[in-house]
Amino acid sequence: MTDKKTRTLSELGEFGLIRKLTEDIVLRHPGSRKGVGDDAAVIDHKGFLTLVTTDLLLEGIHFDLTYVPMKHLGYKSVVVNLSDIYAMNGTPLQITVSIGVSSKLSLSAIEEFYKGIKLACNQYDIDLIGGDTSASNHGFTISVTALGTAQSKQVVYRSGAKKGDLICVTGDLGGAFMGLMLLEQENKKFNSDPAYKPQLEGFQYILERQLKPEACKNLGRKLLAQKVKPTSMIDISDGLSSDLLHICEASGTGSRLFADRIPVHAETAKLAAQMRISPMVAALSGGEDYELLFTISPGDAAAVQSLEGVTVIGLMTDQEEGHLLELQDKTTILMEAQGWNAAQKWGKL
Amino acid sequence: MTDKKTRTLSELGEFGLIRKLTEDIVLRHPGSRKGVGDDAAVIDHKGFLTLVTTDLLLEGIHFDLTYVPMKHLGYKSVVVNLSDIYAMNGTPLQITVSIGVSSKLSLSAIEEFYKGIKLACNQYDIDLIGGDTSASNHGFTISVTALGTAQSKQVVYRSGAKKGDLICVTGDLGGAFMGLMLLEQENKKFNSDPAYKPQLEGFQYILERQLKPEACKNLGRKLLAQKVKPTSMIDISDGLSSDLLHICEASGTGSRLFADRIPVHAETAKLAAQMRISPMVAALSGGEDYELLFTISPGDAAAVQSLEGVTVIGLMTDQEEGHLLELQDKTTILMEAQGWNAAQKWGKL
Hints:
Number of strands of chain A: 13
Oligomer: homodimer
Distance between the termini of chain A: 26 Å
Radius of gyration of chain A: 20 Å
Helix content of chain A: 25-40%
Strand content of chain A: 15-25%
Strand order of the largest sheet of chain A: 8-10-7-11-9-12-13
Largest interface: A-B, 84 and 84 residues
Number of domains of chain A: 2
């Protein structure tokens, strides 16, 4: 047995670390309704809910300034947090933004970053209410916290899914990952030959999925109009398989996904073929799509299938059945959690 | 005139940068009552206020792991945020904690850090409700956000001070700075001679002020019991002179401080004498004391002077009179904003 004192973080892994750090947390205020373990924390003041989520983005881990434009980075830093509020079926209202700035960044670079922050605030009707600025000895550091609210009865947790519920997803998957693959490939070629002109034509969609993703701000409203409340929900940041596992763990269920139902954009499939990557791997493990993954009671199937941009991709099963991916020929593969670059990026408490 | 595009961040300075980034922010939600520009933002939901503040702490800028124990660092990371909530006359209730962890840190080091986080939560009755964990390519990165609440009528901003108001401060000043000077001096000696044994005896108080500061959790309650509401308040993080200037700018006043009234602890004075630093400089520009600086109407003077640990140190004047420090011989010095290490550390939006 490894001595606890000498165990390294990489041995422990992302979920092991989070479990270790949070296992003894006891919430003492009745208003702290939900703490660690969902997309956002929930604070309840006499039925008025405040949702809180936060993300830390570090240069060299989450972004590479050699090919990520500062304005897009600002925009994305906000969007990834709003996505967590939407994943609670809530409405984001405010953000705080803290930055640590290395001396290599110019004032105009920081201004571009804030243009992106403010553009996202405009697009999503968000107030920028505070933050912190600091010098940084190393890379550019970004910490965004988003606050939102939700009707008490409308909040959706990861934990409400039941056997027989349908698994649904918005939009398409794997695009952000393939966009990243393209950027990294072209950046590598450019680095080894400064005369090389990066070839990005024809992949506008997946580049945008990676560089300037959008959060699903309309799903909650559409579902409410159909009188549908998801039984569970999460946003896809780590990848479909990993995020579905989070729901299954919280809900105590198994899951069965139908591979041919998983929505993949034509550009994602095209680049995956060129790069000899399975589009299914991109969709399952790619991450950063910021689509919403949710489950519904079977009785809500017709209402949900009428919604544009929502696809039913599987169903919840008994926990003992594990997590299966059913291929077109009806054979099944056992899935394991494998978030994109999980060993490096880790995750939310 | 310098071309805007090529101006560097250091030319612009802390306050210039913050002003530039925040000057065009418009709050769109009526609930966003106070945004950038105070110790915490204020969100108002039908009279129920949520206070929000956040701090980014970066290795090599805000702390040096060669002499800062991880447990103390965790404790301090929480306390500096709670201090901002107390500075709004509020009660902190929840925090989120995000960390970026470099590979040189062991699991036990991270556990020590969280022990400090949880100890602070116990001491101040705070729930740890969320956060984010990430690998870091560089130093240890900490981002803490604190949430709190206050009675709508009890919130105190920086902007309410008036000419004639008395300037008050809790505790004593300059200790945290002198503690840091001692740690840096002894660390330097140790680095140049590994056989050297750091001499820290006799300075327990100022070391604790630097390494494990406390926030003023009882002032609000004591003032309420005396039916006193400060006209303005701020916590001393940058240093007395700089933080008083924040109040004066927000309130549109000048100020006059009486040097011999400024409370300085015996250990602060002793080390300052040894190191040939003016204790007044430590108190005025040292920062990180996390005491509360506040102003009261003259009619509340007797009530406030009866409180243990509160000292009246000056009075608010007309804006045109500027910011004066009156010495014992009645001569005055014009003060300018000079936060501790301001060029490196910068400040809150």
